[in-house]
Amino acid sequence: MVSQRMLQLGTARSVIRELFEYGRQRAAEVGAENVFDFSLGNPSVPAPVEVNETAIRLLREQADTIHCYTSAPGDPAARQRIADSLNRRFGEQYTADELYLTVGAAASLCCVLGGLTCPGDEYILFAPYFPEYKPFAESAGLTFRAVPPDVPGFQIRLSELEKMLNVHTQAVLIDSPNNPSGTVYSRETLQALSEILTRKSVEFGHPIYLISDEPYRELVYDGVEVPFVPCIYRDTIVCYSYSKSLSLPGERVGFLALHPAMDDYATVHAAVLGAGRALGYICVSSLFQLAVAECLGKTADIAAYAENRELIYGARDDMVKAVTDAGYDYIMMDKELTRYGGVETRDEGLLYAKWLKEHEGQYDGVIFSMPIFADENGAITALQDAGVPILMQAYPDEIGKMDFAHRRDAYCGKFSVTDVFCQYNVPFTVLKPHVVHPLSAKFQENLRDFAAICRVVNGMKRFNLGCIGARTTAFKTVRFDEVAMQKNGINVESFDLSEVFEKVRAKADDDAVVLAKLEHLKNYTDFSKVPASNALTLAKVSVVLDEYIEEYHLDALALRCWNEMETYLRICPCVLLSELNDRGIVASCEIDMCSAISMRAMSLASEGPAAVLDWNNNYGDDEDKIILFHCGPVAQSLMAGKGTVTEHKMFAKNDPGSGWGCNEGRIKPMPITISNCQTKDGKIVMYASEAKFTDDPIEDGYFGCGGVAEIPHLQDKCITLAKGGFKHHTAICEGHYKDILKEAFTTYLGYDWVDID
Fold first, then answer.
1. Which residues pair with 672 in a beta bridge?
2. For the domain that residue 363 is a member of, what is the CATH number?
3. 578 plus 649 within the same structural domain
4. pTM here?
5. What is the pLDDT of residues 501-534, one digit of tens each?
6. What's the farthest any 2 CA atoms get from each other in the chain?
């Protein structure tokens, strides 16, 4: 039989150490220079040169004695030097007797816990805490109770502590600077803690000891004070290690210090020594006892640690400036929530994920900035359930700053994180170049593109699309699959055209809303040729459409625009669709629901109006030019000049006076994106390309609103569209957004895509 408690500890290996062993294995296979080890807290900077020089000198000067035992608490001279150092720095009265040199701070803690603990004792600590505290506690047979974290500052929740203290509380354990949060407990926090512990010690009739675990004491920046706890609370036991301050984790040199004025000092001192004896700690390496004692006041070059810290803090400032300079709002998790204001660990990732959830709906996308090599586990934990587009940004290294202390390695780290995101099926966006500084002009372009992607993704996830009227019998080309649309978050609301007519007929000629709408339309474009009765009817139809939009919260609509409106209402609604598009409400004609989908995406991307046009006429013999046309639903802002509302020539030919409402004109020269979609086999299939409208003339007699578009490789595109079953319509918007649309639809929205370029 074996100890079941120890068996459990031995078989449940430390994840950190397993990672360390794996790192060593991989280093042997691919070379240590190709392995980035983020497991154990091994230093990334060397020990001070004085330590090595002192150790070598001692080996030479004391060759016969340096490897001998010292006394169990440590060499008396070494302990006195450490005591003198504490006294100089903190104004205390330590002697060698109060110092016990230990095999690192871990041994200090084990000696203290083993020496103080009696059956039934409880200890209190503060989350987050070093995970190895748990096996230390279990080996000492004690119970730990954790006070929940005080976010965002990670100071101590004093009210919660006071509630948890009871007669069984033997000690409180603190870790400042904290591992893993990096928080330093302020003097005010420690003074308040001292007052509570002093008061409760009197109330319970026994001292409550304070164990201060301080291996990171020297790793602070910007003049941050790390108060010496025994100066504030006398019943304090300090556990310290030179692993961090002198970069000597492998030498295992630390100490515990009992405050000389603490309650029952002699008994506690003897118990701690006894625990060390029981645990088999004979003495610390005699060589490094002496070497460390002669190098007191020295520290490893923490500039490298500070550099990494500043790289992360600096990235926050850079990103804020980049985003605000681009004209966007932002929210950012408080930098005090994590060690350096970023996400470096799984625990910090959990904090970020929680923060994202709490602020859901307040952001359209996440920028994952990598100022240095990023932690995979922290990244995936933070963003696995983000539910919005994620832009992956990595900092470039600088020539002249490629030494170990300054290089970022974010180029490599970006691949590490994107690989893991792919494994977890987390969608993300990567843009050119692979690494880019946030304050560069190129990143400003990236931001604009990413913002457009976010607008498309979030605007297309779920929206309401009105279908006003049934499909025109002659146009089977505009058939659509409503179920496929619903699967993609598009809610279709259908309305009978007869209902529209009844609502229009019910509007009084002197209705104030109708008259205001009429005045608006006359100011929108040139209504001078329109008979008064037809103009009034157009205003009534516009008001009715507005009512549908408001009542059903329509984000877009497609209208059956002929021939019933012409026959019964004596109007053609083109200009009304034009005006809606300029207002930011996508409006397609001919019940072309698929074009409405494309138009909405393009309007979101461009933050301007879109239009649906016919692939209508060749332009002479130029195979890359075409006249794109429609009767007049083109937004006024996309036209070269103010349009003129005319009678639709097709209806006027056979039924004069029936077609008033075409907004005729020419489309302005501009870069454009062309795009459309279809529903096929239960899916939505999309295409997009880029082109431009030229200033090539079209004769005056050309009907409707059109322009000459120059589209590279147009003939090849025509073949692809024809064989793909795409309709005679295409949607256009001003600007080039093909890549943005493709990224939004394929990476985040799950649409099928056809490349026509």
1. 691, 734
2. 3.40.50.10940
3. yes
4. 0.69
5. 999 999 999 999 999 999 999 999 999 999 999 9
6. 120
